[in-house]
Amino acid sequence: MLNELKRDAAATELHEVSDELELSQELLVSAEEDIGEALSLLTTAPCDEDRAVDVLSQVGLFASLSPVGFRTLAQGAQLVDVPAGELLFAEGDDARAFYVIVEGALEIRRKNGAKGVAMRHAHPGTPVGLFGLFSAAQRGASARAIGECTVLELPAQNLQGLLEADPTLNDRLWAYYRQRLIEGFVASGGFGELDTIAKGRIIGRFQARSLERGQTLLHPGEVTNVLAVVTSGCLALEDRAQSNSQTKRLEVGPGHYFACLTGMSGLPTKLRAVALEETTVELLTHKDFFELARDYAALKGLNARLGTTGALRLDRDVVTGPAGGVGL
Predict the structure, then answer these.
(1) Going from the N-terminus, what domains does the chain have, and what CATH number goes with each?
(2) How far apart are CA 220 and CA 229, in angstroms?
(3) What's the whole-model pTM score?
(4) What is the pLDDT of residue 146?
(5) DSSP labels for 74-133?
(6) pLDDT per residue as tens digits for the range 98-129
(7) Which pLDDT score is estimated for 309?
(8) Rounded CA gap, 292 and 300, in Å?
(9) Contact (CB, 8 A) for 23 and 59
(10) N or C: which end of the chain has fewer CB within 10 A?
(11) In the chain, what percentage of residues exceed pLDDT 70?
């Protein structure tokens, strides 16, 4: 009798496991169908080269290209139809291509805590996704269609080859990268209490500065308010409060910022910021920060707000972190 009960229990358990496996298979098939349906929402087709060249010729960034250059950039171009409300790409995706809007519009959005923030709208003739080609080959924001949208998709390697052969194009895209990096930084949570006009003024005050290897940007003991976004090279933030043998160092590379706001507290910093190699930064100086703070009182609380947006606080008034995500 006992053996029969054991056999019955084992058979019941086997049936239950079988049922669970069947259910899991059904869920897996359903999930695969859902994924397939989601992927099929975007339709892609090869683009005629002449049409691709015509679209690219409307982009100001590519004004220096020769006819051969346009043909090179257009190789392998695809037309992608994006239904209303769907994503062309999502924040964090790999960036292997960039896009030019042919018809319709895209909303560029970035995560900000638990909610997304609309950064800008892009319209026909606007390139989208270039930033990700500069910064770690990942998207720093999402692009969602506003209404139905059609974009031209272009392989990243086409552009890379042209940059090496066309200094003018390289300079144009470098300026574009710097501008987008500053826009991303000022769009972050630290500046969330400022309106669009104020943010625009702040962005306009940043100036490029080149540093030679070993050149110091911030000295220990300074009482100042500066914001620096590294666009190339590397800065070291050194704490020399103790002996040189115990110096603490943190490296700040491209796409990251550091903010020294000792001018707000009146307490001098213990840190030194020095270039480890030839380095370029976008810098908001103490003078410009002071003038902007007179007009926008919210800037006076920037130190505290930067410290709550995933940044690292190195000193009472020195904060560092990613400037605007890893690329748009």
Answers:
(1) 43-165 (2.60.120.10), 192-322 (2.60.120.10)
(2) 19
(3) 0.67
(4) 95
(5) HTT-EEEEE-TT-EEE-TT-B--EEEEEEEEEEEEEEEETTEEEEEEEE-TT-EES-HHH
(6) 999 999 999 988 776 666 677 789 999 999 98
(7) 58
(8) 10
(9) no
(10) N
(11) 79
Give the CA distances from residue 146 to residues 40, 77, 232, 287, in Å, rounded to whole numbers and listed in that order: 18, 22, 34, 41
pLDDT digits (tens, 9 = 90+) for 48-63: 999 999 999 999 889 8
The answer to whether 123 and 145 have CB atoms below 8 angstroms apart is no
Helix axis angle, 167-186 to 156-165, nearest 10°: 120
Q: Are 141 and 106 in contact (CB under 8 A)?
A: no
Q: Is the dihedral of CA 191, 193, 196, 199 positive or negative?
A: negative
Other residues' Cβ atoms within 10 Å of the Cβ of residue 263: 18
pLDDT digits (tens, 9 = 90+) for 152-198: 999 988 888 888 888 888 888 888 888 888 988 887 778 888 998 99
Is residue 163 within 8 Å of residue 170, measured between CB atoms? yes
**Does residue 16 register a pLDDT over 60?**
no
Three-state SS for 17-60 is HHHHHHHHHHHHHHHHHHHHHHHCCCEEEECCHHHHHHHHCCCH
How far apart CA 276 and CA 321 sit, in angstroms, is 18
Segment 17-39 shows an average pLDDT of: 43
H/E stretch holding 262:
helix 262-265
